[in-house]
Amino acid sequence: MYVVSINADKCEGCGDCIDACPAGILGMIDGKAQVTGAETDCMGCETCVVTCPNEACSLQEL
Ligand code: SF4
Ligand code: SF4
């Protein structure tokens, strides 16, 4: 499975990763993007990683 992490210190809350995630598992909490859906639905597409202008998203395969 894939685990996506969002560095809150780097996230500026633009929302681009939320709009881009095809699995719809990212959401905004207190101005920061977070995994708000089922983490197991992440398909490891790296769309959030390449979309983020601040390199806040990272992906790990377990
Ligand atoms: S890797 Fe793809 S499916 Fe997983 S959180 Fe990022 S955009 Fe969504
Ligand atoms: S694309 Fe990056 S800066 Fe924008 S909300 Fe997502 S993690 Fe935050």
Automatic annotation (TrEMBL):
Family annotation (InterPro entries): 4Fe4S_Fe-S-bd, 4Fe4S_Fe_S_CS, Fe-S_Ferredoxin
UniProt entry tagged with the keyword Acetylation: no
PROSITE patterns referenced in this protein's UniProt entry, alphabetically: 4FE4S_FER_1 (PS00198), 4FE4S_FER_2 (PS51379)
Alphabetized GO MF terms: 4 iron, 4 sulfur cluster binding; metal ion binding
UniProt xrefs under Gene3D superfamilies: 3.30.70.20
Repeat recorded as keyword: yes
UniProt domain 4Fe-4S ferredoxin-type: residue ranges: 2-31, 33-62
Domain of life, per lineage: Bacteria
The entry's keywords: 4Fe-4S, Electron transport, Iron, Iron-sulfur, Metal-binding, Repeat, Transport
Annotated protein name in UniProt: Ferredoxin
Organism of provenance: Desulforamulus ferrireducens
